[in-house]
């Protein structure tokens, strides 16, 4: 299908626009080529403007202009798939540390509202379910309930009245993962956001593998079923059940579970917010230390809240992956050191397990120690941890400035640690958004069978 750039993204308050997803390898490569050309043109214009005003701009300053930020966000959201998914991942993982212009790109990727045109959707479902696919349903809502990086979700009703949520993958996603990841990596390199000394190859290869797994909807159905079985006895959670007869590698059918966006909890009373986030943190600890499997995508859209039942609705298990025993053991040792307030041991374990780079700690030892002390002091306060009172955050932000500027000591942790830490960081971000108060130390001690030292 043609690569149509004539349809701009929706603005807040406007209905979502349709835009065909480029599905062929050449179409997607051409889209990246047009992105590069547009960015280059923006650089030339901005460079000429700054030179005329007497400035001597750096290359990174020319690339990350507001105009180029808009170009990159629009193009990646049009491509969707791995390109958009990577942008969203970076956004949640490191948004506070990125230049404002790049934050603009990534924020737009989180909120982009493009949908497949009806003709493209029909063609895909014909290929997966056959030409008479509409006969399978009493009603199939053509307008999607939601659109994400690799698929969009429709509500449908079976002849027996059962309501399903149908996730349909955008065409071309599975076949474009490798090239999309490579192209986004090139964009990061060219923009000088990642120093040449940092070896991204292991991370990129793992990103390709992870995204390929997320694009296999039969695999996701299996993971969804597994989580549902593990949590069946806990009334705090609800997991949709997949419908095997309608699920393929590109279409995932599951129970439709009503619920409100998790962010609506911000309007709830303190006890309700605290209870919900306690349940979510306990789930993360169970995934890490009991299940040996973790859903590693903490996107807020993957959680819903049922105010009438007080249950968390858990969605999207494409990023569910096994947690290696050695990774869980690293977190166990780190928690043990934290509960004991052994700050030297915390630093040593962080280096041993790859949370921190040895060169970075050697070059910035005082700053690292102040960061650890600030976090430990906050966590040691009596009573539940107040995510709304993050007094240590300004300290951490200030102390990390020199470390971030010292690009020669940048360090990429082991990929397994990165995926687990992404879930932990994203969960903490949600707790902060809701200003929840949670007994973190008590929950962590219980999870590893340890005692708390005062």
How are the SSEs ordered, and which strands pair?
Elements: H1 25-52, H2 59-63, H3 66-79, H4 81-94, H5 100-111, H6 118-129, E1 139-140, E2 146-147, E3 151-157, E4 163-169, H7 173-190, H8 201-214, H9 217-230, E5 237-238, E6 251-255, E7 260-261, H10 270-291, E8 293-295, E9 303-306, E10 311-314, E11 320-322, H11 325-339, H12 343-352, H13 358-363, H14 365-379, E12 385-386, H15 392-405, H16 415-433, E13 437-438, H17 440-448
Parallel strand pairs: 5-10
Antiparallel strand pairs: 1-3, 2-3, 3-4, 4-6, 7-9, 8-11, 9-10, 12-13
Helix pairs in contact: 1-3, 1-7, 3-4, 3-5, 4-5, 4-7, 7-8, 10-16, 10-17, 11-12, 11-17, 12-14, 14-15
Helix count? 17
Q: Catalogue the unreliable spans.
A: 1-15, 26-64, 77-81, 90-99
- Give helix and strand order, one letter per element, not per position: HHHHHHEEEEHHHEEEHEEEEHHHHEHHEH
The major beta sheet can be summarized as: 5 strands, antiparallel
- Content of β-strand: 5-15%
- Structure class: alpha+beta
Radius of gyration: 23 Å
